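User: Structure with AHM, tokens only please.
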Amino acid sequence: MPKKNQTLGEFIIENQSDFAYSSGELSRLINSIRLAAKVVNHEVNKAGLVDIIGAYGETNVQGEDQQKLDVMANETFIQTLTNREIVCGIASEESDDFITIPGCNNDHRNKYVVLIDPLDGSSNIDVNVSVGTIFSIYRRVTPLGTPVTKEDFLQAGNNQVAAGYIIYGTSTMLVYTTGRGVNGFTLNPALGSWYLSHPEMKFPETGRIYSINEGNYVHFPQGVKDYIKYCQEEKEDRPYTSRYIGSMVSDIHRNMIKGGIFIYPKSSTATNGKLRLLYECNPMAFIVEQAGGKATDGFRRIMDIQPTELHQRIPFFCGSTKMVEKAEEFMAKNER
Ligand code: AHM
Ligand code: MG
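Assistant:
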């Protein structure tokens, strides 16, 4: 039973025995992530003070502008995990291909791979709106002692052993799951310690918030248009409230606390939507499900989907179970 105000360090040690045959590797890995998160938090917090805001001048593999802090966050997480030789490979939303980490004896004996979106929602940095980091951890599927291959990264979300996000908001929080519920830790910046502030987080079964970029309305599939109209109808518990930050971690974090649905659908201009299956949707789906919510592409459970590409995109519907189910009803009535 998680104890409120316990530090993340204590929590990790206490829960290590939950894993049969645990060698402590996963605990050390989560420790490395909490360290990198503190470094990124420090940089994000001083974004307005020094000349680090604004575009970096390059585009990433998806053709989007990279913000300077995107680059810094990417390097911080990769370097921390590489220096500590804690994983055998890393794939990042900001890098074209995955990285192989051979380990200290060049023996490729570490068993975990990490997939990461180092700074999600980074277009919000220049305007002082919260951003996040998302991570996903899998056990490699290729034999120990050999370099990792793409197969180790292209695993269905079902295989995740842990996933989490860091939200750099009014306070900084690290929320994660290892498949035994979801716990949220808040950073005390004066001490540099994370404290368990949100034990056993639970998605309300239903809610009154819908989060979607309605500016794209005309391009949405009919099922999504119909669901939006349903949300806006004058009924006993409706209209719902519309809340969209444009920073997925923050939108989903709020909905998990208050009850709501987040949708990033496909559209006539983006045939698979915008969000990435491996770096964004799978880890958020794991957290959402562990908190009792639901995550689908409008038809199929996200974590059942077998990925085919590292940077694959997918429509994303997630949140309070009853609300996602209602949206799915509207999708099913219309053509895919
Ligand atoms: P990013 O990884 O380039 O930051 O993009 C992902 C972000 C999500 O956090 C957010 O939900 C979405 O993009 C917002 O996109 P849009 O501006 O199209 O609504
Ligand atoms: Mg992202």
